Amino acid sequence: MTGFRRSVAVGCMLLAHTVHGSMLEAATVGEAYDLDSKELLYRETHCVSADAGIREVLYRDTDDELIAYKTLNYAPGSTTPSFEQHNLYSGDSIAVALRSGAVVVTTRDDSADGTGRSHTLTPSPASPLVIDAGFDAFVTDHWSSLVDGQQQRFQFPLAAREALVELQIRSAPCTYPTQSDQCFRLAVDNWVLRLVADSIELGYDAQSRRLTRFRGVSNIGDGSGGGMAVDIHYRYHDLAALECAR
Fold it and tell me: Do the domain assignments include residue 241?
């Protein structure tokens, strides 16, 4: 597993967790299957605040045990949310925040003394900046041009490389059977890195423009430091019974 591939997925995610489960409601659930074996690996429940400004994602394994959680704050912008993700399976965490036009990335080992390491990345004015789940708003903001065949580019922070990389997104045929989805291919905008980095496939319902599939390397590790290649199926109904408290 390359450092880039894992970084895109982790990044492709600064808040103190002051938001309590009672303040959030389940809005989406994703079921992550192994891309090859089709085995169910984990579920992710997306819980949002009433104004959609805060989102918490709870990751649970097939035994319903919490293995990770992530909180996003969309105050900086719909495409540039600040976020913090804690990985219980590995005991580490990552936080990314936009401050005065710069991207501050902080990583720490939660299982040790909790001290962190931070570095600052300066985006180029040549292309827009997208952070973590902000890619979803970027897709919907550029929906018409993407569907019409235009390619879009944006900068994305990769924590492991301590760098911002240029990514490209374009429409592409879906690799899975569907009669309703519009698919897009997300890849590195650098031919050298493309030799070692797998692309990511995003599937959206063409009518509602909501994410239905994510096919690529997950932001949840396999417990030994590697990312998992997953096929995540998202749904937006029958969520009332889902628990948003950790």
Answer: no
